[in-house]
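Support reply, case 0932

Customer input (verbatim):
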Amino acid sequence: MPFSFQELFDNSWGILLAVLFFGGSIFVHELGHFLAARWRGLKVERFSIGMGPRVFGWTGKDGVDYRVSLLPLGGYVALPQMADMSAVEGATEEGAERLPPISYADKMWVAVAGAVFNVLFALGLALILWKAGQPVQDGTQDTVVGHVEPAIGAGGPLADLGAARTVPGPAAAAGLLPGDKILSIDGASVSNWQQVTEAVLLGKLRDEAGAPLCRLRVRRGEAELELTAKPELVPSNSQTTDRIRVLGMQPRSAVILGAPMANSPAAKAGLREGDRVVSVDGAVVHGPESFRQLLRSEAPGPRRLVVVRDGAEQSLAVEPVPVLRTNPVVALTHGDAGEHRVVLIPVPVEGQEGRVRLVVHSATGPAEVTEALRLGAVLDKANGREIVALRSVDDLVAAAAPDGRDFQVFWRRGAEEGNVTLRAASVRVIQPAPIPSIGADIRTATLLVHRNPLEQAGQALRSTLATLDRLVDRDSNIQLNQLMGAIGIAKMYVNLSDDFRLVLWFSVVININLAILNLLPIPVLDGGHMLQATVERLMGRSLPTRLVVWTQYTFVALLMGLMAYVLLNDVRRCSGDGDARLRNELIQRHVVRPVEFK
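Our regenerated output:
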């Protein structure tokens, strides 16, 4: 099972950014508690980044044990006068009973200070980002639809070949069209594509049968329409049960041509790098997919492209030519209704020209099938027939029963080998069809947006609160297993490390998240301390020590269990990301063909 942890270790800059900004966010939070405790005259015993046993540190002249602890699960400031936190922080030298009591105001100021410092840190980072500008894809600052997927599924070259299992696109089925402007989703107004995406993901409407539902209000021309779509629940990772609501639509964006290839139709027509395509045969181009679909029109002859060059429109005639963009693949369809599929990629045998092995790209079906035919497995035999490298595809086709009977395949993967039976299986070699091409890559523009700090923090706050609300809403599809832990956060920093401005944006979101989560009224968290202090003030006396201690221990166990669960899903998600990367490499190396014009 390939892990993508290697990506983490291969990117030292990304890891450094994760340590500086995520570790820095934890440090800032604990610094808030520390400074507030000093201001209010509380006893401070320890200042720890991380939990568990001490790894290294020092004792300051103020008597505080400053340390870095083993488990990267947050941090703490040991304050015996606040509450008995020995379940989390370990025993203190001086119990609260031997120290002078502190006031309600002391407790509230110290407890809230961590969240306040995270918000201040977020605003400081947002101030830098406001000046520098946040890079966003062209078109995402509006809600105009650029492309509506007729079908959704695995996508990419396999979908073009018909080797990927797809379902009708929910947005297309609902009647959404390119050029429609989305005004609201489920009654909530939207003003940019990020809000559109979040509204779909966090949706909680369902129909009478319990299936996800989404209500769209759109503007088409001068009219406003109400559309009802049924989002598809699509797995977002091969190793987890993560499933997200998808409508199958993309924002409108500019289509900018790259440098035309030599001898290509684009070069012959006089198209240049940087030309922005606005229409094809009079039809407006709403984005890359819109442009490709217009080029695929069955009408013969050249297409009339209107492009913008140096601020002026030009009309050019270009005649696309059919090119083969992919090599054949093999699909094993199985299941009583043919609902499952095993996709095999013919991979050349190194050093043996003309010979190929059938390598598993992906498999769906019962657990015994998906476990056996994992990514990278090689088929050696089918229904008793050897599959040889010289004619592997022909051998597999010959081994298949014409009436779709059960099909036994023998596989090997490294030192492992075995066999598995596919029910009611059939074999299909999927030959690619030529696709019209003009021989120029399509680029999308990136814009810089300058949002003020309050706007940035406000968006992060709304997203965090909406996600928390959906976690406890049975009608939503947001679940605990979709939360991101320390590993997932580090991986996000690695993924964003190429652009420091995106690192700043993510850090703003992380700090707002930390502030909100720590203020939840749950024992062990800052909000729990504030709740306890408020209850004691209203009662006029302290809560029983035994009750407080057992409550702390109970919620420590629950919190640690939740952290372990989230980290486990982080590991699974990393493994799934590694699978996706290797599958993509398999396609790029052995399915996608280089395009040449002679």
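We compared this against your earlier run and they match. Two observations from our side: Residues 411 and 417 are 6 Å apart (CA to CA). The two ends are 43 Å apart (CA to CA). Please reopen the case if you see a mismatch on your end.
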